[in-house]
Amino acid sequence: MNNYKKQPFIPAIQKTSTLVMLSILAIVCFLIAINIKTVDVSPSYEQKIKAAKLMEQAMLVLKEHRMEKSIFIDIENDPNETGLVGSPFSLITTDEGDLDSKLTTLDPNFSAVVVDLMYQLHLQAGDTVAVLMTGSMPGANIAVLAACKALDIYPITITSIGASQWGANQIDFTWLDMESILHNNDLIQNRSIAASIGGRNDMGRLLSVSGRKIITENINKHEVPLIKEERLANNIKNRMNYFSGIRPIPSYDAVINVGGGVASLGTSFNLKLLPPGVVLRSSIQNIGRPGGIEGAFTKFLNYDVPGLHILNIRPLIADFKIPFAPIPVPEIGSGGLYANEHYNVWVAGLCLLIVSSSVLAVGIQSKRKIKEHLIRHEPDSLL
User: How far apart are CA 1 and CA 7, in angstroms?
Assistant: First the structure.
């Protein structure tokens, strides 16, 4: 009895050494669970990397061209020093623009976003797409053309030259100028097959006479056919004629719209309700506007040609895990756009099972020892 009093019975679950061992085991299992992760690489990873690098190279070539002319880079509004951010106003500025959206599209990773969207449309090497562009988002234009080249998709492009604020609105550096430089450096597959002034009614209604003249002369300089009719509907019809002259409209594998050109989008539906990204014929059926004019993009959709709508950049990139207006530009290949990293459920489950089983085992053993102790020393307590 005296020996019993000197060494009181302590079940294992109450021993400090046992609790310490269980704590160490739990910590080790926790560290294992949070450090062993699974990486799901995007099925289009290689094509995304290729497109982003092509865009990066294209942007560098254009920047070097600007630097050769000793052009000042506005670091305040072009913090990543791309040399491709336009001015708040010029003679060929057609509308207000969102600077942050322009900066977002001047991230080479934006071309990887376009690749992802093209994969959603199941586009493949050898496919042909119609591309409708404006001068408002040169970064998005480059991204689309780089993605086409990376995927070996052939773009047929028609452009409106006028640009909103911060876009390709420099009178000596329009989108056609950029396009020509990129084509001459074999960074894009082809040039625009036709071009218009752009802006209000696709005829530069809010531009000055000098502004419209500058654009017209720029189009003529590049020897690109000018689309210039008296009415918006006729300008749209001309676009469709150019596209159908290459191949029948229903045979295009997709149509891609970049920007908010009125000849592209028309006035037949509420633009605010048109979601960015993948657009199908069904997407515009419930947002129609009576009496409006169908734009070229809408006409393609009505032929059941699937579309990509690249506008409203913030909601567009929300699902692709790239930053909005990044400073500095992220490295190519980084982020969830290329690969998703997540905890390994099986490892986490195994660790939980080990810790739970250990605690349960100690509890069961302690209960058995307590019962044995009571039988030997306090049998009356079991009654």
Answer: 10
128 phi, psi to nearest 5 deg: -120, 130
Give CA–CA dist 85/29, Å, rounded: 51
Q: Report the 10 Å Cβ neighbour count for 250.
A: 10
- Residue 107 tokens, joined: 């991230």
Q: Count CA within 13 A, CB hemisphere, residue 59.
A: 28
- CA separation for the pair 16, 6 (Å, rounded): 18
Q: How far is CA 99 from CA 16, 135, 310, 319, in A?
A: 62, 14, 16, 21
252-307 pLDDT per residue, tens = 999 999 999 999 998 876 677 788 999 998 888 777 777 788 899 999 999 999 99
Which residues, other chains included, contact 52 with Cβ-Cβ below 8 Å and sequence gap of 6+? 108, 109, 111, 112, 146, 332, 333
Supply the pLDDT for residue 283: 81
Q: What is the C-alpha separation between 254 and 256, in angstroms, rounded?
A: 7
Query: At residue 244, what are phi and psi to the nearest 5 degrees?
Result: -70, -20
- Among 74, 103, 101, 75, residue whose Cα is nearest residue 90: 74
Bridging pattern class, strands 307-310 and 254-258: parallel
Q: How many CA atoms lie within 13 A of 287 on its CB side?
A: 18
Give me the pLDDT at residue 115, please. 97
Torsion sign over Cα 303, 308, 312, 317: positive
Give per-residue pLDDT as tens, 365-381: 777 777 776 677 665 55
Distance CA 285, CA 279 (A): 11
Strand pairing category for 37-41 and 226-227? unpaired
Q: Residue 116: which of 56, 175, 41 has the closest Cα? A: 41
Segments of the chain scoring below 50 in pLDDT: 1-4, 382-383
Q: Which residue has the tokens 């894009």?
A: 188
Q: Characterize 64-78 residue by residue with b for buried, 16 or more Cβ atoms within 10 angstroms of its Cβ, and e for exposed.
A: ebbeeeeeebeeeeb
Cis peptide before 138 (omega within 30 of 0): no
H/E stretch holding 160 reads: strand 154-160
- What pLDDT score was predicted for residue 1? 47
